[in-house]
Amino acid sequence: MRTLRDAKVGETVKVAKLSGEGAVKRRIMDMGITKGSEIYVRKVAPLGDPVEINIRGYELSVRKADAEMVQLAD
């Protein structure tokens, strides 16, 4: 299954599932990344970390490690 890390710049994707455990998963959810939310990928840093996204009307930078925990719908 694709993750947020695999999404291309300019693509709008939908969250299918969050992996991870405990505090890490809670932190991702606290940022507004929840099942069913739509994410627009704005930019990716030259070395691939972090990824800048738009979600729920605000901009957010997400590390690669956190982006791998966000599984996308097909």
Please characterize this protein's 3D structure:
- A hairpin with a 2-residue loop joins β3 and β4.
- The protein is 18% helix and 36% strand.
- The chain has 74 residues and is of the alpha+beta class.
- The mean pLDDT is 91.
- The termini are close together.
- The longest helix has 9 residues.
- The protein contains 2 helices and 5 strands; from the N terminus they run βαβββαβ.
- The protein has a single domain, classed as SH3 type barrels.
- A 5-stranded antiparallel sheet has the order 4-3-2-1-5.
Provide tags for this entry:
SH3 type barrels
Task: Detail the topology: elements first, then pairings.
Blueprint (H helix, E strand, L loop, with lengths): L11 E7 L3 H9 L7 E7 L6 E5 L2 E5 L1 H4 L2 E3 L2
Antiparallel strand pairs: 1-2, 1-5, 2-3, 3-4
